[in-house]
Amino acid sequence: MRSSTVTPPTPTTAPDDPEAVIAAERARIDALDARIVALVRDRMEISETIQRVRIESGGRRVHLAREMEILDHYSSELGSAGRDLAMTLLRLCRGH
């Protein structure tokens, strides 16, 4: 599912100043990257809580079936690169 909160793209029809268009689009990417980093940090905190509660209740730190669900979801939405992204997220969120 795609978010509808992304800023509309800068018009690309015959830009008067290509460098201005590029700078504006890079600024949009920088803003998205900042949001992504914040979301990943939130995900890491939530994951830490889940792991702590699971371990305190006698479970394991990692729940492999759940990780497979996440990998499948990212793969179905974004292809093989999505699976790689999910692996990176899972690695970040597993804790130490």
Automatic annotation (TrEMBL):
<keyword id="KW-0413">Isomerase</keyword>
<dbReference type="GO" id="GO:0046417">
    <property type="term" value="P:chorismate metabolic process"/>
</dbReference>
<dbReference type="InterPro" id="IPR036979">
    <property type="entry name" value="CM_dom_sf"/>
</dbReference>
<protein>
    <submittedName>
        <fullName>Chorismate mutase</fullName>
        <ecNumber>5.4.99.5</ecNumber>
    </submittedName>
</protein>
<feature type="domain" description="Chorismate mutase">
    <location>
        <begin position="16"/>
        <end position="96"/>
    </location>
</feature>
<feature type="region of interest" description="Disordered">
    <location>
        <begin position="1"/>
        <end position="20"/>
    </location>
</feature>
<dbReference type="InterPro" id="IPR002701">
    <property type="entry name" value="CM_II_prokaryot"/>
</dbReference>
<dbReference type="InterPro" id="IPR036263">
    <property type="entry name" value="Chorismate_II_sf"/>
</dbReference>
<dbReference type="InterPro" id="IPR010958">
    <property type="entry name" value="Chorismate_mutase_highGC-bac"/>
</dbReference>
<dbReference type="GO" id="GO:0004106">
    <property type="term" value="F:chorismate mutase activity"/>
</dbReference>
<dbReference type="Pfam" id="PF01817">
    <property type="entry name" value="CM_2"/>
</dbReference>
